[in-house]
Write a structure and sequence with these properties.
single chain; alpha/beta; three-stranded antiparallel beta sheet; 12 strands; 16% strand; disordered N terminus
Length: 382
């Protein structure tokens, strides 16, 4: 395999430990504090002044972070912050978590998926006839700079009210075509286990609902949230889990421990990666990340083309880049390491699978097929 660029390096334990110790010393905290998800949330790094305690940036960088944070809130868990390689200008952790002056670009839309108009009741988003989303919070451990719902972040964390959740569940009861419910946000796992169980129990009692899923990025940004109690709760209601790892350096020992807890309890974990310029738009980087996830029993589910959200244009890539990556994966890695590359059609029109079409050519009496080694064969369908 060709050597990957420095931006696609793997997790560095020495870097992590060094920054972690700086933070613990600054906050007069212990190892027990570090692995406590509540402590991590309470001590999220949210201002440029806090950032400056742990690294030296240029005055221009500090000022840019300060300016952008006034428009789009910044929050990074101490854990995720400790993964940043400040010696690498293209560090994928930094690019995903630090406010960038390019976010002030006016291109794109706040709600390109038309979610506000896809809300029939409560906190629901419904794009398809047989499944829907319940948004239970706007809070996240780390506000990804490429977030598709940055319009909901606001200035403060807010959980959806019991009345909003109950209204959403009532809508599901009254619509028998709905067989799948995704609990998300924000990050669904930032609400308490008690509140999660209340939602799971009510939804599971609806006869026509076959599948409950949870959407979370805590495995990458706050893996300490995943413990035996949560895994038992998810197993009790047969809840499936969708997560988002975008880069191999997010797959840390802590993340693997969280994955193991879930999978060992029979919880299916599927990864929905986002293709992001300068973060992971490299065929070897995608291959490595997917192979690492496969090794730890995570299902490679989707590779999302970035949505045209206001303020994230600097993450955009051409579809041809995504197709090139998918073509590269053919024959070079396991089928389990090949997600479905999808484009979300604007206006809430749903997912469009994107596949390299040069593999197949319809002819008069059959098909010409091209293998991963660019060898051609003819298939006669008669």
């Amino acid at each position: 395999m060709s050597k990957v660029r420095i931006g696609c390096s793997e997790f560095s334990n020495s870097l992590y430990v060094n920054t972690k110790n700086k933070i613990l010393k600054e906050l007069n905290a212990t190892e027990d504090d570090w692995v406590n998800p509540k402590w991590q949330m309470k001590n999220r790094i949210t201002t440029v002044d806090e950032i400056s305690k742990y690294t030296d940036l240029t005055e221009e960088e500090y000022e840019n972070i300060r300016i952008v944070s006034k428009e789009y809130r910044c929050a990074i868990t101490p854990y995720y912050f400790s993964l940043i390689d400040f010696n690498n200008l293209d560090c994928p952790i930094k690019l995903q978590s630090f406010p960038n002056i390019l976010e002030l670009d006016e291109g794109g839309q706040l709600d390109p998926m038309n979610e506000e108009q896809s809300n029939p009741s409560g906190k629901i988003t419904r794009r398809y006839p047989n499944k829907l989303i319940i948004n239970v919070t706007n809070a996240c451990p780390m506000f990804c700079r490429h977030c598709q719902r940055r319009r909901l972040i606001g200035k403060h964390d807010r959980n959806s009210s019991k009345e909003e959740i109950d209204e959403s569940i009532e809508f599901i009861k009254n619509n028998e075509t709905i067989r799948e419910v995704l609990i998300t946000g924000g990050d669904a796992l930032l609400i308490s286990n008690d509140k999660l169980e209340e939602i799971f129990e009510k939804v599971s009692q609806i006869g026509h609902v076959d599948v409950i899923r949870v959407g979370t990025r805590t495995l990458a940004t706050l893996p300490f949230r995943i413990d035996e109690e949560l895994a038992c709760l998810l197993r009790k209601y047969r809840v499936q889990l969708s997560t988002q790892f975008n880069h191999a350096c997010e797959i840390t020992p802590e993340a693997v421990k969280a994955i193991d807890i879930l999978v060992d309890h029979g919880i299916p974990v599927r990864n929905q990666m986002v293709l992001l310029r300068n973060v992971n738009d490299d065929k070897y980087c995608i291959q490595k990340t997917n192979e690492e996830l496969h090794k730890y029993r995570v299902i490679n589910y989707y590779l999302f083309h970035p949505k045209e959200v206001k303020g994230i244009n600097h993450f955009q890539v051409d579809i041809s880049k995504g197709l090139e990556i998918m073509k590269h994966l053919e024959g070079r890695t396991s089928g389990m390491c090949k997600p479905t590359y999808v484009f979300n059609a604007p206006g809430g029109l749903g997912k469009v699978p994107l596949v390299p079409m040069e593999n197949i050519e319809r002819q008069e009496d059959g098909y010409k097929l091209t293998t991963w080694e660019n060898k051609t064969i003819f298939y006669d369908f008669k």
